[in-house]
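USER:
Class, as today's exercise, take the chain set out below, and explain how the chain folds.
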Amino acid sequence: YIYTASSNLPEEKLLNLYQSKSPFWIALSVDKDTLAYSPLKLITSIPHLYFNHQKLVRYDTGVDWYNSWTLPEGKHHILIFYAPQYLEFAGFLLIALSLTGSIIYFLFTLTRTIKNRLAKTKRLHASHN
């Protein structure tokens, strides 16, 4: 779901990604240091990169099964990712937050119940003495 590449082109060329043709494949022009990120850091920084880096211009080749982008001449460092993949990551985050919230609620309820029972037991012992 993520591809990286670097190029130094003497003239304008097409970059073809032979995956399913979809408008959700996004190609960004990034700096060289960004491509050196660890995979986890690269994945987590994509939302920031998406809003703060130049998107490559899509080129319609007339072929229905792959995506193409125009690369102008010069040095390029490119990051290509499939945007819907981040819906999966958002789902994992929601699951983790839900589980964490449920555990916290359970522990809070358990401690409150134990405190109430201890207080009730102390009152019973105090009334019998």
Observations:
- Residues 85-128 form the longest helix (44 residues).
- The mean pLDDT is 91.
- The CA atoms of residues 25 and 91 lie 20 Å apart.
